[in-house]
Amino acid sequence: MRTPPRHLVRLLGAGVGAGAVLALTVSCASPAREYAVPTDLCGVGVPASVLEPVLPPGKEISAHPTDPEGTGIARCRLHVDGESVFSASIERWEEGTSARDVAGPAQSVGPGDTQSADARFVYSATGAVGRVDCRAADDAGRSVWATVRTTRDGTTAEQMKNLITAYADSAAASGGCGKVLK
């Protein structure tokens, strides 16, 4: 058997090596997000740019609102491919409640997590709480708070802070206060 020329052996070896690297890259790449990122969380608008980083890849997304009359809580869950992956809520609390008070019982964020300089928000890489500025709540001796949480790995605390800020501000502007103050 005749030995192939050295330059062909190198070329073949380079091709095999490049193919292996490509296969490894493709197998390690994240699955694609095939759904459109919503700009509305059950009636509360949020920019897709702040919601997108906390949502996982998948094919389909659906929103599941719950706001039982008289409970003081309006919740929105997002499901991707049938699995609950994100939750947002607007909740009525007693006047004088702090962000750390709300973070205590909240899932995915705790009272010891990072607090904003104005004490309006507490946030972590998986959850956040923030005060919703509602004039009607102040008039009724109550406060209104927004919470968000995600199950996506790799989300940063800064991304959650951006999301809770946008969500709390939008909840105040979109009538979220009225939903929980009934």
UniProtKB/TrEMBL annotation:
High-level lineage: Bacteria, Bacillati, Actinomycetota, Actinomycetes, Kitasatosporales
Protein name, UniProt field: DUF3558 domain-containing protein
Domain of life of the source: Bacteria
Region (Disordered): 96-115
Species in which this protein is naturally found: Streptomyces bikiniensis
